Amino acid sequence: MYSRFLKQLSEEQHLSLLVVTHDKNYVNKTNRIIEMEDGRTMCL
User: Fold this and answer.
1) What mean pLDDT value characterizes the chain?
2) Structurally, how many domains does the chain consist of?
3) What is the mean pLDDT of residues 25-43?
4) How far is CA 23 from the centre of its chain?
5) Exposed e or buried b for every residue in 4-21, given b needs 16+ CB within 10 A?
6) Domain span at residue 19?
């Protein structure tokens, strides 16, 4: 529910959104994943 709303909002308003989650189902719906470990980015 929220993922569709956020995706639509992002596309219509040309916004970038940062979502922090451990939910792998939600992660699979994104177009970019940045992993963090101990406060540092691991993958860009």
Assistant:
1) 84
2) 1
3) 84
4) 11
5) eebeeeeeeeeeeeeeee
6) 2-41
